[in-house]
């Protein structure tokens, strides 16, 4: 998605060979118009995938997921990283390790929001080591639902997430695929 | 906003005289079309308020805030409740006590996303005791920016948040105002 790549080139900050900061439009400040266009692009790619529901992870996945949900006309569920007193339902959970934050957390979804008849599109902001994506896929499988695919805003293709998920037979659509962050430069896979 | 009230009547669950659960369309599962309409309604009410930026709080504020930002054509910033290794900037912070979760947390915004020339619309999912709203207002004031107003999806009008914020001279627009949850019934203020 050319518009997204342009935004990453102009507004992304390469913090190291491993870390790209996109706080100005995705992870802290959000560009709503870009999110709308991202939602339209996910919808275009998954229009024929029979999606009945979208699953994402708080917080940075919510904006692109809701825009995709608007375009596809399906509800969005976001997994929570922290339990709330008000969320006392039957929970489906998975353990997710964040290499960026260096912490393991439990992500949780109320069981009643996923049913065996659901065909679920996973949306997330980043795909790197694939930990969050695998946690979300595990939750979908625990519910007996099927995975329609994974829609990723930014993929760090030099990390092993995509290969592992493809090894599980999953379809992955990433709107920007980064080959390398070396030398402070963002190089995309075309 | 009549459509929102209908949704609360049909999909909301009254857990006690104090707690309304709206997990099916706002706090865990999200109804993207309703969020879009909520964003349009916020934009209609604040169209002439000179809004340059929207500030909300992760996670449930993000969907309505991004839809309002799309309609008003302004960026959205979400305050974080938990610090990330990647967010090491100069931070503006406030302490927020959650009566629902019975915990105090620090909310934080990177200082560079609010400037003294900003006129900031605060969007949040609920207004009850006003703790989150006051924390967000404090962060805006620390930045030297001005508050355009507060846009709230659901106000529990029997709790003191609105009165305290109005006492600070702030404009509040709540799309559904709940007078009472007594007897398991949602009663709205017209």
From TrEMBL, chains A, B:
Source organism's superkingdom? Bacteria
Q: What is its main location?
A: cytoplasm
Under catalytic activity, the entry for this protein gives: XMP + diphosphate = xanthine + 5-phospho-alpha-D-ribose 1-diphosphate
Give the signal sequence positions.
none
Subcellular location(s) per record: Cytoplasm
State its Enzyme Commission number(s). Answer: 2.4.2.22
What keyword terms does UniProt attach to this protein? Answer: Cytoplasm, Glycosyltransferase, Purine salvage, Transferase
- Sequence positions that bind xanthine: 20, 27, 156
Which residues does the record give as 5-phospho-alpha-D-ribose 1-diphosphate binding sites?
128-132
Q: In which pathway does it act?
A: Purine metabolism; XMP biosynthesis via salvage pathway; XMP from xanthine: step 1/1
Molecular-function annotations in GO: xanthine phosphoribosyltransferase activity
Q: Which HAMAP family match?
A: XPRTase
User: How would you summarize the oligomeric state and partners of this protein?
Assistant: Homodimer.
- Explain the purpose of this protein: Converts the preformed base xanthine, a product of nucleic acid breakdown, to xanthosine 5'-monophosphate (XMP), so it can be reused for RNA or DNA synthesis.
Name of protein: Xanthine phosphoribosyltransferase
């Amino acid at each position: 998605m050319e518009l997204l790549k342009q935004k990453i080139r102009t507004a992304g900050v390469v913090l190291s060979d491993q870390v790209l900061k996109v706080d100005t439009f995705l992870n802290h400040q959000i560009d709503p118009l870009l999110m709308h266009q991202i939602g339209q692009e996910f919808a275009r790619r998954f229009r024929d995938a029979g999606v009945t529901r979208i699953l994402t992870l708080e917080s940075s996945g919510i904006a692109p997921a809701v825009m995709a949900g608007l375009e596809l006309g399906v509800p969005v569920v976001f997994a929570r990283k922290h339990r709330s007193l008000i969320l006392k339902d039957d929970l489906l959970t998975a353990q997710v390790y964040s290499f960026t934050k260096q912490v393991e957390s439990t992500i949780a979804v109320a069981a009643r929001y996923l049913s065996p008849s659901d065909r679920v599109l996973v949306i997330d902001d980043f795909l790197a080591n694939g930990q969050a994506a695998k946690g979300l896929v595990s939750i979908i499988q625990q519910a007996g639902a099927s995975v329609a695919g994974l829609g990723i805003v930014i993929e760090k293709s030099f990390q092993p997430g995509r290969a592992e998920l493809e090894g599980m037979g999953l379809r992955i659509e990433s709107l920007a695929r980064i080959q390398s962050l070396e030398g402070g430069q963002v190089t995309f896979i075309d």
